[in-house]
Amino acid sequence: MLQVYYISIPDREHRFDAVFQQLDVVPTFFSLEVVPSLVTLVSREKTISQQDFIICDLGAATWSNEHILSAVQLLRRFSVVKMIFLAPQGERTTGLYKRLAELRVDGLILDEGDTSGQLTAALQGDRGYMRRLAAIQRAVTETAEKEVSPLRIPPGLVLEIAVCGAMPRVGVTTQVFCLYHYLTSIGFRPAVLDNGQPAIKTLMDLYRDKAVERERSIEINGVNFVRGVTEDFDCYLRDHGVLTPELVSAVCSADLTVYVGGVKPWELPDLADGYLKLTEDGQPNELVVMASFAAAEDLEAVKQYVANCTAVPYHPDIWTPGSDMAYRAAVLPPLKRLCGDV
Predict the structure, then answer these.
(1) Contact 41, 65 (CB under 8 A)
(2) What mean pLDDT is predicted for residues 275-283?
């Protein structure tokens, strides 16, 4: 007898009754309407460790891909329960399944009609199904890589990206580094343009012994810093620190403006104030708003202040790339428009 949590919309509660009866499965149904957070479900549901599988029907789910990945990683810390995902084919599913395949999640089913046979095989651990699944996962990975890389960057294009924050200590400099790694991964040759910010100066002083000095740049742990624009790079990141009224014009004149804020209750007024400065006074060419050290569920409180905001998780090591899913969703579309790659 298998114990299974099944998460879906109410109309699909009995969709797999025949499969469950055939395999002697005892399902516990959770409606998506009462599961606003998958992370909260897997961390607080007391009987989850007694289950053999969790089946997530993502067809109507509004969780972000990053949120789903966080839930999978959290679950693995304290339980051996296996997860099965059903999702319609599309760009969002492709990106999610690629990451889940990298995390060695076995149950990834493209929901294109009658999936009873695939679900049966996944619940039984059928070897033939697992071989077919491996081939599907490889195809999904290849598709995802084609979708996001390489970006077609026109010869001679040079971009400036301005990064600013709603208040001190909300991760502006961290986002400069995360953006640097992401831009590198999609084909740019970026550099951090020393804008006089104390954090950048401190880093350059701290890691001076690891610096490689070149004629027009300094490389520290693989990250290039410059004091002015040179022909060696095609994308420059400026750390502007806290957004002030005097900085609005300079920040908005960049090709892409990245505005970073916090989601704690006492941080939201500053986030809203800076957003209004940018959108009403500055009119940036392209604007991306990021909530640092946040999860998808944290964005509910932000929606009343900011139209579109992307949650970016905590990233402890600025010198190494982290998850790029948030940057694919938020930064890649404006980069494509700036490159004419649409």
Answers:
(1) no
(2) 89
